[in-house]
């Protein structure tokens, strides 16, 4: 928090400085100032200085990423049932050309590798569909049909993947579905792999790690709107794709979301959850061993070993990139030590029995010696990240200082799979610090800092006023000192939110940092910030969790409503009642002291509010009711829901929040 106050500055303007604030840019200059810029001379120098020492002669990944190619998605498009396109795979053809000056050479290499799209043969009985969405869909051939591991994000893409599988490998039934972990890009397309009706009728096993259903529903629910707004930055949803836009999503290809439809998400609930390492099962003649790996890359995650095939699926705990210990969209901090320790255990359990390694992203690895080298060096990177961050922390460094000083040793830094295309050493080191010590860095000056609004105004005043800060910011840009320029100009933007010259200068400083970034997430965040500074923040209602509410247990729905309670309304209207859904799911609800408390009904007495789940969901999401509510029920439900307000869908990140 102290860092946020110092670096990102403010949220709104103080009246004395904001009064009379206007743009310093004339109308005739605005179009040029607001345009995207080419890579600067400083950015080109940065590329030379930071990427020249990478092992460019090592081309093994290109052989791995293309090995076993069978066929591409016919037509190069994925469309919804109504004909609207959700994916144009032909966008990936850009990577057959020359690298633009506006893309970091290392990130361009990453994007080239991830652009390999289609069905690939891994072994005689294992295939993957890669490069059609962020993650991979893996198919294992059983005795009579297919076992599908991970199902992509959308129903449409999963169906297109399975259509390709069946066209090339035969029209066989799905005999089992396995989710490796609780992130939506690995379960959202399940209904495109097999319909819920068929899965139920044939009792098809759907296997997931322990806690999967709870985590899949709840991880992004409580803070979902804020996370979704930040995810728009991290994944470049607003900037499109191209040389000056989203070029890669780091662990998967990037596709333009502008002008394309949104696919359908439909998860099938697990029929079995794996809760311990060493658990085994057999599906359609394929033996499976599981390593339970919770609280690593996801709260619920597991690796899968197939002894008959000598194939190890490491889910998302061994990637060809440094991953996130804390995502830029926001989530609970992950445990870097547990991550490294579980990789050590994977090597001990399966290392000498594995000839083929697959993951939920990227390409496979073949050969026992190569796999052991890969897993060991990747594990060492997470262990080094954790141990050295803690060592520096115990020497008195704060998170920012650790991030600035932490560097991988050459034996780890020279491995392509340890590069920071998704996570970075910088923000991962800060996450390790946060996990152990939290937001406070121990300096009392940062214990009770001024609110960002007030701090921004005072900084601008102390530096000689708005024009002086703008001059300093532009000078820093001219000198290629983009980090300092952004810090200066961000304070000016937050102090004078209507000053267009300040916004455009800040945009220029962010843009060059976006071009320079090795991390796809950093690139997208910088370029999205620049776009919103130039074009404005598009406002509008948005509730990221509305689609999840129908599947949530009543207790989780009430947890969601609790963080939307408006205290003034709740204080004015205390109430208590038993909320009963479909005659069986019941919670005692109490509004008291400005908070919503709930617990299983038990012996609690009180008036009943009886509804169907569909009626409650419709009321919360403000959708029409399928069946009319009785007048007294509607009145009481309205009184209850009047105490909560929906979150803001869009708010400023590089500009003051409205």
Please outline the helices and strands.
Layout (H helix, E strand, L loop, with lengths): L1 H6 L7 H4 L8 H8 L6 H11 L8 H7 L2 E3 L5 E3 L5 E4 L16 H10 L3 E6 L2 E5 L6 E5 L4 E4 L5 H15 L4 E5 L11 H4 L2 H6 L4 E4 L2 H7 L5 H11 L37 E3 L5 E4 L2 E7 L9 E5 L4 E3 L22 H15 L5 E3 L6 E2 L1 H27 L4 H7 L4 H4 L11 H13 L14 H11 L3 H13 L3 H14 L4 H17 L3 H16 L18 H9 L4 H6 L2 E7 L3 E8 L2 E6 L6 E5 L1 H9 L9 H11 L17
Parallel strand pairs: 7-8, 8-9, 9-10, 14-15, 17-20
Antiparallel strand pairs: 1-4, 2-3, 4-5, 5-6, 6-7, 11-12, 12-13, 13-14, 15-16, 17-18, 18-19
Provide structural commentary.
There is one protein chain. The chain is of the alpha+beta class and 658 residues long. It has 25 helices and 20 strands. It has an eight-stranded mixed sheet with strand order 1-4-5-6-7-8-9-10, covered by helices on one side. A six-stranded mixed sheet has the order 11-12-13-14-15-16, covered by helices on one side. The protein has a four-stranded mixed sheet with strand order 19-18-17-20. Strand 18 and strand 19 form a beta hairpin. Helix 14 (399-405) packs antiparallel against helix 16, helix 18 (466-478) packs parallel to helix 20 (500-516) and helix 20 packs antiparallel against helix 21. The longest helix is centred in the middle third of the chain and has 27 residues, at 368-394. The two termini are 20 Å apart. The relative contact order is 0.12.
């Amino acid at each position: 928090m102290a860092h946020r106050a110092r670096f990102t500055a403010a949220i709104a303007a103080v009246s004395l400085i904001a009064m009379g604030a206007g743009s310093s840019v004339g109308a005739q200059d605005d179009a040029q100032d607001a345009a995207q810029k080419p890579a600067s001379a400083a950015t080109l120098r940065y590329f030379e200085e930071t990427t020249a020492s990478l092992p460019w002669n090592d081309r093994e990944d290109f052989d791995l990423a293309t090995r076993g190619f069978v066929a591409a998605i016919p037509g190069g498009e994925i469309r919804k049932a109504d004909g609207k396109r959700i994916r144009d795979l032909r966008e990936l053809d850009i990577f057959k050309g020359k690298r633009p000056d506006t893309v970091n050479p290392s990130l361009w290499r990453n994007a080239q590798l991830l652009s390999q799209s289609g069905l690939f043969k891994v072994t005689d009985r294992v295939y993957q569909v890669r490069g059609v969405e962020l993650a991979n869909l893996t198919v294992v051939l059983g005795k009579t049909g297919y076992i599908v591991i991970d199902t992509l994000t959308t129903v449409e893409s999963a169906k297109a993947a399975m259509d390709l599988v069946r066209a090339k490998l035969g029209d066989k039934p799905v005999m089992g579905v396995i989710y490796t972990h609780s992130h939506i890009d690995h379960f959202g397309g399940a209904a495109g792999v097999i319909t819920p009706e068929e899965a139920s009728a044939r009792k098809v096993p759907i296997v997931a790690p322990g806690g999967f259903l709870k985590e899949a529903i709840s991880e992004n629910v409580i803070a979902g709107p804020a996370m979704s707004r930040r995810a728009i930055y991290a994944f470049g949803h607003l900037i499109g794709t191209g040389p000056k836009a989203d070029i890669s999503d780091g662990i998967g290809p990037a596709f333009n979301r502008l002008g394309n439809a949104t696919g359908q998400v439909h998860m099938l609930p697990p029929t079995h959850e794996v809760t311990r390492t060493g658990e085994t099962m057999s599906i359609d003649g394929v033996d499976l061993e599981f390593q339970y790996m919770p609280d690593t890359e996801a709260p619920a995650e597991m690796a899968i070993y197939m002894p008959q095939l000598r194939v190890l699926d490491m889910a998302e705990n061994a990637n060809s990139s440094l991953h996130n210990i804390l995502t830029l969209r926001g989530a609970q901090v992950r445990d870097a030590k547990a991550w490294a320790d579980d990789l050590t255990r994977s090597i001990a359990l399966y290392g000498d029995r594995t000839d083929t390694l697959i993951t939920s992203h990227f390409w496979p690895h073949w050969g026992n010696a190569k796999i052991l080298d890969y897993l060991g060096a990747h594990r060492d990177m997470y262990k080094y990240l954790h141990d050295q961050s803690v060592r520096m922390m115990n020497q008195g460094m704060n998170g920012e200082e650790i991030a600035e000083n932490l560097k991988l040793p050459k034996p780890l830094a020279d491995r392509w799979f340890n590069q920071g295309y998704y996570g970075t050493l910088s923000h991962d080191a800060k996450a390790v610090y946060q996990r152990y010590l939290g937001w406070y860095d121990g300096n009392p000056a940062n214990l009770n800092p001024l609110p960002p609004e007030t701090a921004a105004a005072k900084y601008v005043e102390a530096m000689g006023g708005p024009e002086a800060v703008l001059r300093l910011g532009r000078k820093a840009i001219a000198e290629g000192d983009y980090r300092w320029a952004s810090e200066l100009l961000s304070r000016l933007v937050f102090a004078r939110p209507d000053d267009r010259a300040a916004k455009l200068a800040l945009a220029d400083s962010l843009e060059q940092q976006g071009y320079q970034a090795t991390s796809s997430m950093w690139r997208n965040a910088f370029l999205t910030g620049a776009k919103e500074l130039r074009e404005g923040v598009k406002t509008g209602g948005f509730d990221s969790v509305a689609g999840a509410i129908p599947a949530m247990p009543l207790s989780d729905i009430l947890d969601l409503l609790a963080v939307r309670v408006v205290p003034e309304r709740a204080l004015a209207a205390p109430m208590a009642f038993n909320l009963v859904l479909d005659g069986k799911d019941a919670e005692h609800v109490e509004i008291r002291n400005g908070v919503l408390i709930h617990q299983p009904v038990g012996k609690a007495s009180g008036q009943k509010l009886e509804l169907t789940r569909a009626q409650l969901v419709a009321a919360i999401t403000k959708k029409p009711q399928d069946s009319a509510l009785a007048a007294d029920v509607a009145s009481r439900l309205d009184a209850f829901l009047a105490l909560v307000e929906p979150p803001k869908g869009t708010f400023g990140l590089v500009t003051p929040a409205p």
